[in-house]
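User: Run a structure prediction on this.
Assistant: Running it now.
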Amino acid sequence: MLLKRSSFSRNVWLTAGLVVAMAVLFFAYTALEGKVDEAHAQRFRSVRLADELRLSSDELSRMARSYIATGDANYKKRYLEVTAVRDGRQPRQMEYHHLSWDEAWAERQNTATEPGIAISLMDLMRQAGFTDTEFEKLASAKSQSDTLTALELAAMALIDVQDSASQAKALAMVFDGNYHQDKNKNMRPIGEFYAMVDARTQQQ
């Protein structure tokens, strides 16, 4: 009888121990799962900001070339708006990462939207929790993009002269080999940033 009680007591304690161990494992798993989710969310936010820098640079090139080729003032207007939003001089009214630029522009013209906050893309990047090395990559890409912006603005200013020689010079400025090399310099650190963020979030 005493042996049966002893065996029963051991079984009870063993079961209780297993229940406690399972509970501990469950809470540990939940905590780790939360960290994994946060790593994925951090990667999404990081890539979205880098995408905005990359896509806005491409859009500026497209608008500058379109304005120079056609003289249509709407292209220049869109160009100036992109730079103003990106530099924090104009509220971020368009959800640029959700739509193509043409769709975003059309939606803004056709719907009344509440003004967002005016904050530069670089400030958003500073708040995103990048490592110093990651931020340096994007800062380098932004600096290269700003160099291109200065060239594009100078080329667009030539169109105001309204003669064929000035237009030819402006077109050469945004289509020659040097321009394409500068575009590649702009994109390279962004690609390196993507690789660094992938490596960091995978490790996390």
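The chain has a mean pLDDT of 81.
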